[in-house]
Amino acid sequence: MMDYPALRAVATVVQTGSFEKAARVLNVTPSAVSQRIKQLEERLGVVLVVRGNPCVATAKGELLCRHVEHVGMLESELYRSLPALAGQETPQKVTIHVATNADSLGTWFLKAVARFSGQSAYLLNIAVDDQDHTAEWLQRGRVLAAVTSLDKPVAGCRRIFLGALRYHATASPDFFARHFAQGVTPESLAHAPALTFNQKDRLQAQWIGQAFGEELSHPTHWLPSTQAFVKACRSGMGWGLNPAQLVKDDLKSGRLVELIPGLGLDVRLYWQVNRLAAERLEGLTKEIVATARRDLAQEAPREDE
């Protein structure tokens, strides 16, 4: 038999980051929260929450947190149909965990989730990771849905092709004149500082491979911000791959120039959602797909899509 007070204690501690905050949400004492989790951990023989600042879930704890989300969505539907079941208590709002890449969040994704949140009682917890790695959040049970570049369905998930996020390799005119006066070549790229989001970011390497058919070592600044990427390019700090939506005005005005005109990089994106939650997240999926189809570059889906 499931001990749902203990499961909710785990999920709330992980969501709020502390036992004290979870206690306020659950309207119990911190010691009661601690006792519930301790007893559940002893019963299961595994650690569910890593105590710290903030507290985080272990892999097994994440699985229980996602189960609590599923149950919370089912309960929300039931309370809407049978409000008397809730009694005098105000049902706790359900928080849905999803993941996306930073460039989608900085261009089109936020518009979709804002529309969804305006029509839904669910809250959202949006995790950000590289598009090549968000699928791992699904595989590990850390989220119920994700925007990912993985073109194969994650086990237990539905996959929908969204479109391609188009990038341009850009730099300021001064930077271009300083580093590429003799043209954009493997030799000039080996000395011109690039901009890289983090160690997972391979966009610059992919563009170089597309342009020259080989991987090149090049100096880089590390800058983990989509908006700061554009500003850094404008300021002449380095060259980088920026979403077309964010630099179209800069390219039109001449504040930025393409390193190789017309040579963009398209990153195909997919929406993958846990099959058990797919029906209840239909509204979110609808907004994600509709916004992506408007804002992303569209192409004919592959035969298996």
Describe, in plain words, how this protein is organized in 3D.
- This protein has helices spanning 4-16, 19-26, 30-44, 59-81, 102-119, 134-139, 173-179, 186-189, 203-212, 226-235, 244-253, 275-278, 282-295, and strands at 49-50, 56-57, 95-100, 123-128, 145-148, 157-171, 194-196, 220-222, 240-243, 257-258, 264-274.
- It is an alpha/beta fold and 305 residues long.
- Helix 1 (4-16) packs across helix 2 (19-26).
- It starts with a helix and ends in a 10-residue tail after the last helix.
- The model has no long low-confidence stretch (mean pLDDT 93).
In short:
By secondary structure, this protein is an alpha/beta fold. It has helices spanning 4-16, 19-26, 30-44, 59-81, 102-119, 134-139, 173-179, 186-189, 203-212, 226-235, 244-253, 275-278, 282-295; strands at 49-50, 56-57, 95-100, 123-128, 145-148, 157-171, 194-196, 220-222, 240-243, 257-258, 264-274.
